[in-house]
Specification:
Number of domains: 2
Number of helices: 12
Bound molecules: pyridoxal-5'-phosphate
Keywords: Pyridoxal phosphate
Strand order of the largest sheet: 1-9-8-5-4-2-3
Order of helices and strands: HHEHEHEHEHEEEEEHHHEEHHEH
Strand content: 5-15%
Helix content: 25-40%
CATH architecture of the largest domain: 3-Layer(aba) Sandwich
Shape: globular
Protein name: dTDP-4-amino-4,6-dideoxygalactose transaminase
CATH topology of the largest domain: Aspartate Aminotransferase, domain 2
InterPro entries: DegT/StrS_aminotransferase, PyrdxlP-dep_Trfase, PyrdxlP-dep_Trfase_major, PyrdxlP-dep_Trfase_small
GO biological process, one term: polysaccharide biosynthetic process
CATH class of the largest domain: Alpha Beta
Distance between the termini: 22 Å
Number of strands: 12
Organism: Lentzea albidocapillata
């Protein structure tokens, strides 16, 4: 592949910085490698960047979801409404706590949970609604916020892919009672390791998550365990690297948005030829992954590969169709999620693609749709 889907040089230009950080933290007299001053400063920076009351760094985006669900006292007998299309932790996090993930079908164009479906699935057992932003489109948070408020249930916003996104003037992560970010390598603020962050405007959720990530301790007295907690702590080297890279994040997000908007404009005319791009908009967008819906998806994938262009399928099956989650979803149907799983194809959108490369990718998609 001349243009692989996952770029091999994701942290290009930052390797020296990373090595310097490893050396300085590795050789520092305090020998502090987790939850030290770099982590605290990283949390403060993220907290202030979105106007949260608290931001808590933890082991991964998945861990962040589990920590918040635990802080919201989700357990056996509870239901958590999640999208029927998305990544495994959306279903696994509630299930791990003994709760039931209830799958809401998605909008057939944007692939995010359909608010009407969420509203239809609210029951007396619903404890939390957990929508997720998907690919390049944020979920309809104003509608989902009002469903949560009128049902009197909590809202956990899976903004793992949407850090830096804005919808109606509110940052991704701040529409819910809590939101999460992921820093796994491929995410827009990815890093060379595992990590996540919880953001919340609710100081009580913040305090609970902070305890839960470190064995239920309060951070003052060691070996006093107020709650049954996890080990979900944050690495000092990663925190220092993220502190260094945060200043240039807006630049990278802007470049992604520029590429995404160009694609959407080029692909607008392909809707009648079996290739559907996301709806054009500037509000509520987060260009993590640029996904098309192609009627002949596998043929498009082969066509791109023949021109040296990598692509990726997120996700090949709807969540309720996964063997692990099917027992939670007996007898249901999720037509939009199942169609999305057959048609979705993501094309490269990383920020260091050149204009010529972006044009080459767009040309290849257009040629496929128009000529074959
Ligand atoms: C990546 C992702 C997660 C999980 O984050 P990890 O850091 O990989 O655990 C959760 N939800 C969504 C929507 C994601 O894309």
């Amino acid at each position: 592949m001349t243009l692989p889907f996952f770029p091999p040089d994701l942290f290009d230009g930052e390797q020296e910085t990373l090595l310097d950080i490893v050396e300085s933290i590795g050789l520092a007299p305090e020998q502090k490698f987790i939850l030290g001053t770099h982590t605290t400063r990283f949390e403060e920076m993220i907290r202030d960047s979105v106007g949260a009351a608290d931001a808590i760094a933890c082991g991964s985006g998945t861990a962040a979801l589990s920590l918040v669900l635990r802080a919201m006292d989700v357990g056996p007998g509870d239901e958590v409404v999640v999208p029927a299309f998305g990544c495994a932790p959306l279903a696994a996090a509630p299930a791990m706590l003994g709760a039931v993930p209830v799958f809401a079908d998605v909008d057939p164009w944007t692939m995010v949970a359909d608010p009407a479906e969420i509203a239809r699935l609210i029951s007396p057992r619903t404890k939390v609604i957990m929508p997720a932003h998907m690919f390049s489109v944020m979920a309809d948070m104003p509608a989902i916020r009002s469903i949560a408020d009128s049902a009197g249930v909590r809202l956990l916003e899976d903004s793992a892919v949407a850090q830096g996104g804005m919808l109606g003037g509110t940052p991704a992560g701040m529409w819910g009672d809590a939101g999460v970010y992921s820093f796994v390598q491929v995410k827009t603020f990815g890093m060379p390791g595992e990590g996540g962050m919880v953001v919340t405007a609710d100081p009580e959720i913040g305090t609970a998550v902070r305890m839960l990530r470190n064995h239920g301790q309060d951070g003052r007295t060691r070996f006093v365990h107020h709650r049954i907690g996890y080990n979900s702590r944050f690495d000092e080297i990663m925190a220092a690297f993220q502190l260094h890279r945060f200043a240039t994040l807006p630049q990278r997000l802007e470049r992604r948005a520029c590429i995404g908007e160009y694609y959407t404009e080029r692909f607008g005319e392909l809707a009648g030829c079996g290739v559907l791009a996301p709806p054009p908009a500037s509000d509520g967008r987060c260009y993590y992954v640029y996904s098309l819906l192609a009627e002949r998806r596998d043929a498009l994938r082969d066509h791109l590969a023949a021109q040296g262009i990598g692509s990726h399928i997120y996700y090949p099956a709807a969540l309720p169709r996964q063997p692990a989650f099917a027992p939670y979803a007996p007898g249901g149907a999720w037509p939009a999620a199942e169609l999305a799983a057959r048609r979705t194809l993501a094309i490269p959108i990383y920020p260091h693609l050149t204009d010529a490369q972006v044009e080459h990718i767009a040309d290849a998609v257009c040629r496929f749709a128009k000529e074959s």
